[in-house]
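Q: Structure tokens for this one, please.
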Amino acid sequence: MGVVVVVVAVAAASALTAASALGGSGGAVTQSVAAGSCSKAAARNEVKRLHLGNADDPTAGDPVGQVLCGAFLGPNSRAMVASLAIPSCGRTAGWVVFRRAGGAWRLVVQRNNGAELTAVGTDIKETLNVLRPRDAHCGPTGGTQSRVWHWNGTRFTAGPWQRTESPKPVTPKPVTTVHLYYVSSPSYNIWCDVGDEDQVFCVSKTPRRAVTLTYDGAVKICSGTRCVRNNKVFQPGDPVLAYGQQDVQGPYLCKSERTGITCTLTRPGKADGKGFLINRDGVTRVG
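A: Here is the predicted structure, written as tokens:
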């Protein structure tokens, strides 16, 4: 008859408490009278019977979080990994291991460090969030560290910690706002007249397109050389609206990005946000 193991994690996942190797003097062995298969219900029975975690607090909700099953105690064994939940940002606050023997569950190991547990084949991987010195308890920014627990035939042993750094936050560059009537895109493929005659008029060389946005949110699109209405278009010396810059004139806002120039209305009402995007693919209505 195979051996069944239940691993129950009760962890504050943001804690950085280093866990010693599982086995040996790490936990007492206690008879469990609740029978059942590897399931959350079986883990819940044992947790309540042994008064683990928040099992005795009727306001704390389900005392069991994660539940994983696998042959964690060697070939032909059956095991279940679970977590005892706590009502905080840490989510769990320790973990324990049960062995199924003689028709009952027996507590094999109890750990007091929080972790997120994952089955890796027949091993158990625990992952902890890393708190930097100035971090709030519920706001770790140091990434994570993980290690794998392996059953060597007599006890669990832990592998080395593997650290994963959190990506550094990217600080967006502030948007520069200008107030110009005539602007060109950095590629000189698009030219716009912003706010003159109470409208926005943009034209592109490739493909030859023109578009007009008026105060009521109406967008009119034109194709072909006939769309260029005057000789002011693409004049040498016209200021360039750099990528990330926006040109604001009254209720009209045109922003330059590598995807093209987007012009919209910013006036309150139904027309707010209406406008267009003009680029090498043509003209697309927005809003």
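A few notes: DSSP finds one helix and 22 strands in the chain. Confidence is low (pLDDT under 50) at residues 1-8, 10-35.
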